[in-house]
Design a protein that fits this description.
There is one protein chain. This protein has 100 residues and is an alpha+beta fold. The protein has a single domain (2-89), classed as 2-Layer Sandwich (Alpha-Beta Plaits), CATH 3.30.70.100. It has three helices and five strands, in the order βαββααββ. The chain has helices spanning 15-29, 59-65, 69-81; strands at 2-10, 35-43, 46-56, 83-92, 95-98. Helix 1 runs antiparallel to helix 3. The longest helix is centred in the first third of the chain and has 15 residues, at 15-29. It starts with a strand and ends with a strand.
């Protein structure tokens, strides 16, 4: 199993569109083969920051996820919303590495 986790910090004025984009992304991604868990959540003390948490069967499933139409649409939405910082990591066999 492969875990993806981290924080995406967004333009604070665009929380509504960010929630809508994240909700659509979760709905579509959860249908993908190899997806075990796919979640976004807002930090209580900083609602403009979203925690990413994903579990995938393997790296191949994650790579295929990156090529989907809904991932392309999500990236476009994030561009419109404005990402101020992004720190996303993979965890596999106890080893944490930046996703990139």
């Amino acid at each position: 199993m492969l875990i993806v986790t981290g924080i995406i910090e967004l333009n604070a004025d665009k929380i509504g569109p960010a929630q809508a984009a994240a909700t659509k992304m979760m709905e579509e991604t959860r249908k993908e083969p190899g997806c075990i868990v796919y979640e976004f959540s807002q930090l209580v003390e900083a609602p403009h920051k979203f925690r990413v948490y994903e579990e995938w069967e393997d790296m191949e499933a994650l790579k295929l996820h990156g090529q989907t139409a809904h991932m392309a649409a999500f990236r476009e939405a994030l561009g419109d919303i404005g990402v101020t910082s992004r720190e996303i990591f993979t965890v596999s066999n106890g080893v944490k590495a930046p996703l990139g």
